[in-house]
Amino acid sequence: MAAYWSFLQERSSDILHALGQHLALSLTAILLGTLFAVPLGIALVYNRVRWINVSVFFVANLLQTVPSLALLAVLIPLMGIGTKPAVVALLLYAIMPILRNTYDGFESVDRNVLDSARGMGYGTMQRILLIQLPLSLPYIMSGIRVTMVYIISWATLATLIGAGGLGQLIVSGMAVNKPELIVTGALGAILLALLVDQVLGILEKWLTRRFGGARRMSI
């Protein structure tokens, strides 16, 4: 244990750099995924053409089935190596769970509440922003939290295309047969996922209290 502690002290700058890269990569992918999937999920709720919904969910499901390495291999000829293809790959994996939870969250809102709001003169955007979105927040945040944990795990493979991150420690450890690097990279990803999940849980509670209260006041 003392030897491992000494190793952490000696390589602290490299570990922190890899951790920072990993976090930036994961947060960028989840942010872009949320900005894309949430509006798309809302649009699908209001879309009346069934085959469009079926097609969108089919494509999103299909992306989830593509192996990570295969997806990275496809993106390399198109985008080269580095951070950009890694972010795109993680973004594609992030879409489905956030999209599904957003859609299910909006669909779960009581129709009587929406009819009452419509009777009070609420327009479509008012119903979305003041009623459906606040009531759907637990669903949406649940999708984001689950996706974030997966993204942090998948991001370890980003090092294979030169994007860095904690995966670099694991790959380097395997290359030079240094278990300390492998353990540090794996533990770093696990602890990062747990920490981010806790932070998102706190954010979820804050958003629910804030916008839930605003919704009740508006009605």
In words, what does this structure look like?
The structure is a single chain. Helix 2 runs parallel beside helix 9. The model has no long low-confidence stretch (mean pLDDT 87). The N and C termini lie far apart (59 Å). The chain contains 9 helices and no strands. By secondary structure, it is mainly α. The protein has helices at residues 2-10, 12-46, 50-65, 68-79, 83-107, 111-119, 124-154, 166-175, 179-218. The longest helix has 40 residues, at 179-218. The chain has a single domain, classed as MetI-like (MetI-like fold), CATH 1.10.3720. Residues 19-200 form the ABC transmembrane type-1 domain. The chain crosses the membrane at residues 23-46, 58-80, 86-103, 147-169, 181-203. This is ABC transporter permease subunit.
Helix count, per DSSP? Answer: 9
H-E string: HHHHHHHHH
Helix content: over 70%
Assigned CATH superfamily: MetI-like
What is the domain tally?
Answer: 1
Strand content: under 5%
Main sheet properties: none
Distance between the termini: 59 Å
Fill in the CATH topology.
MetI-like fold
- What is the class in the CATH system? Mainly Alpha
Q: What is the 3D shape? A: elongated
Q: What is the radius of gyration? A: 21 Å
The total count of strands amounts to 0
List the uncertain runs: none
Structural class: mainly alpha
pLDDT average, as an integer?
87
Q: Which architecture name does CATH use?
A: Orthogonal Bundle
Main location: membrane
Subcellular location: Cell membrane; Membrane
Protein name: ABC transporter permease subunit
Domain ABC transmembrane type-1: 19-200
